């Protein structure tokens, strides 16, 4: 019997579409799904004329694969991944390759990579982005884990990934949980981009009084410029969608955002790493606040008011401001996201290829955008700037956008419309570009109530001082 190049476990939306992509690119595959009915439906719809073999058990799947076996798990992150690995293990041999293509937590991936390495199994955690269409026609793939697996799987995954200028959106990212870590950051950035766009839509509708078609026209136009991106593109499409009664569908959608956890992981990781990832964290908080619908309804009755609208004559000026605010805030978000990855790379000993990461997000994934090409250029500079905000190109861009950004945030504040991502990004920017900030006061307070000491600007920077604030006012230099 001809053996398959790869076995896929899990024929949900992503698993099924990756299977079709692999098959379309000429890879013979075997598929297994716990619920046999799903496998039958998949084969009924797509099996005709394709080199796809069905396995009726995990053991059967393993028996259909060439050596070393390559098995891609496309099951829900968490206990299901653990269970499938346990069930597969008795049938695997040293050198076989197990790939987890779900949104697994990178620390779980790291642990599985270690545990499986001890059994001779090469474990790969691979972030897969792009939703249904991406999986089918070219996803962005973020593999990491057992480097020994890469030569075997490289061709297969680089072939099915999205391509930009002849380069596949799939590069090896490092050992352990590196691949799933980068996917986690991708998702955090996705949360931030989505929140920024939602805030801009809300301001357009409620502060500027724009119709949905006018909003859609705006996003479509923006998609032809600096803001060109998948999320901006689909926002135009979403705003044009009408319900059966002809009204904009979005106005009938419950304003409670769901989340599966990757945004929270990103924010938690940033806190652990002491990286100020304010925008993505605000985006997570905004989803959490949105979930308190009944409480918000009561608060609206008690505290709410209908926002006033700007005069029609000022709309064009504010639309330009919103464009600039979206662009500048997005730049802050990516600056923070890359800061976090840089910190994680140091902590985990990963040589994360930052420029390649920007490139592999340029197509196939949810955050794909023109902007990522400029980020790649920044990481190609010698020396690499300390952060994207200090890159000469981005510094000039953000300065150009600054006036509009402030106008947009003032619009939100003045009209009582929440824009936490736009405004926290501006606060970060103002804090970041401030050579002498407000923390001198915090240090003085800490020293006053708790003798926590402070350092001085005008004396030996390594020395610590304490002032007897509540006593005679004298200062002591600590040994
Ligand atoms: C992707 C997405 C995807 C994610 C969804 C939903 O890259 O294709 O990031 O992996 O699962 O976007 O995420 P939330 O339910 O957390 O919004």
Features:
about 475 residues; alpha/beta; Rossmann fold; N-(1-d-carboxylethyl)-l-norvaline Dehydrogenase, domain 2; Single alpha-helices involved in coiled-coils or other helix-helix interfaces; two-stranded antiparallel ribbon; 19 helices; about 55% helix; binds 6-phosphogluconic acid
CATH topology (level 3) name of the largest domain? N-(1-d-carboxylethyl)-l-norvaline Dehydrogenase, domain 2
The helix content, as a percent range, equals: 40-55%
Q: Mean pLDDT score, rounded? A: 97
Question: What summary fits the major beta sheet?
Answer: 7 strands, mixed
- Quick one: CATH superfamily of the largest domain? N-(1-d-carboxylethyl)-l-norvaline Dehydrogenase, domain 2
| Span of the ends, CA to CA | 78 Å
Write down how many β-strands occur, each being a DSSP E stretch of 2 or more residues: 11
The tally of helices reads: 19
The fraction of residues in strands falls at 5-15%
Number of domains: 3
Widest beta sheet: strand line-up: 3-2-1-4-5-6-7
The second-level CATH architecture of the largest domain is Orthogonal Bundle
Given the C-alpha coordinates, what overall shape results? globular
Question: Which cofactor or ligand species appear?
Answer: 6-phosphogluconic acid
Topology pattern, helix = H, strand = E: EHEHEHEHEHEHEHEEHHHHHHHHHHHHEE
> Cα-atom Rg, whole angstroms?
26 Å
Q: What structural category characterises the helix and strand content?
A: alpha/beta
Please give the CATH class of the largest domain.
Answer: Mainly Alpha
Low-confidence stretches: none
Describe the structure.
The protein is an alpha/beta fold and 479 residues long. Helices cover 53% and strands 9% of the residues. Helix 1 runs parallel beside helix 6, helix 8 crosses helix 11 and helix 14 (315-348) crosses helix 18 (420-432). The termini are far apart. 6-phosphogluconic acid (6PG) binds at residues 103, 129-131, 187, 190, 258-260, 262-263, 365-366.
């Amino acid at each position: 019997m001809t053996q398959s190049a790869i076995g896929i476990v899990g024929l949900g939306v992503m698993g099924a579409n990756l299977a079709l992509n692999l098959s379309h690119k000429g890879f013979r595959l075997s598929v297994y799904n716990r619920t046999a009915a799903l496998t039958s439906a998949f084969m009924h719809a797509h099996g005709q004329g394709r080199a796809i073999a069905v396995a009726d058990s995990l053991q059967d799947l393993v028996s259909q694969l060439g050596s070393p076996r390559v098995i891609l798990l496309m099951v829900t992150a968490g206990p299901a991944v653990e269970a499938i690995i346990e069930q597969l293990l008795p049938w695997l041999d040293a050198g076989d390759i197990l790939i987890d293509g779900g949104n697994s937590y990178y620390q779980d991936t790291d642990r599985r990579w270690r545990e499986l390495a001890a059994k001779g199994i090469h474990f790969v955690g691979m972030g897969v982005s792009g939703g249904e269409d991406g999986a089918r026609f070219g996803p962005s793939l973020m593999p990491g884990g057992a480097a020994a697996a890469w030569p075997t799987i490289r061709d297969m995954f680089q072939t099915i990934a999205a391509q930009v200028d002849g380069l596949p959106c799939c590069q090896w990212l490092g050992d352990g949980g590196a691949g799933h870590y980068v996917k986690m950051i991708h998702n955090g950035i996705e949360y931030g981009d989505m929140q920024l766009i939602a805030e801009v839509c809300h301001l357009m509708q409620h502060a500027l009084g724009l119709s949905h078609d006018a909003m859609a026209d705006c996003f479509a136009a923006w998609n032809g410029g600096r803001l060109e991106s998948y999320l901006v593109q689909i926002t135009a499409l979403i705003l044009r969608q009408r319900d059966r009664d002809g009204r904009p569908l979005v106005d009938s959608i419950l304003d409670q955002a769901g989340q599966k956890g990757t945004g929270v992981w990103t924010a938690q990781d940033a806190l652990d790493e002491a990286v100020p990832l304010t925008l993505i964290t605000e985006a997570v908080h905004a989803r959490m606040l949105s979930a308190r619908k009944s409480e918000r309804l009561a608060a609206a009755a008690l505290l709410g008011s209908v926002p006033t609208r700007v005069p029609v004559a000022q709309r064009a000026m504010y639309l330009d401001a919103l464009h600039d605010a979206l662009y500048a805030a997005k730049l802050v978000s990516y600056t923070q996201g890359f800061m976090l990855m840089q910190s994680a790379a140091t902590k985990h000993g990963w040589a994360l290829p930052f420029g390649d990461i920007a490139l592999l997000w340029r197509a196939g994934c949810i955050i794909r955008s023109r902007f990522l090409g400029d980020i790649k250029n920044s990481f190609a500079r010698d020396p690499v700037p300390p952060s994207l905000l200090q890159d000469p190109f981005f510094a000039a861009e953000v300065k150009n956008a600054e006036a509009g950004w402030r106008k947009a945030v003032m619009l939100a504040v003045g009209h009582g419309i929440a824009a936490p991502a736009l405004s926290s990004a501006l606060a970060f920017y103002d804090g970041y570009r401030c050579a002498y900030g407000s923390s001198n006061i915090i240090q003085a307070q800490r020293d006053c109530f708790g003798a926590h000491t402070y350092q001085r600007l005008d004396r030996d920077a390594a020395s610590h001082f304490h002032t007897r604030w509540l006593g005679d006012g004298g200062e002591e230099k600590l040994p």
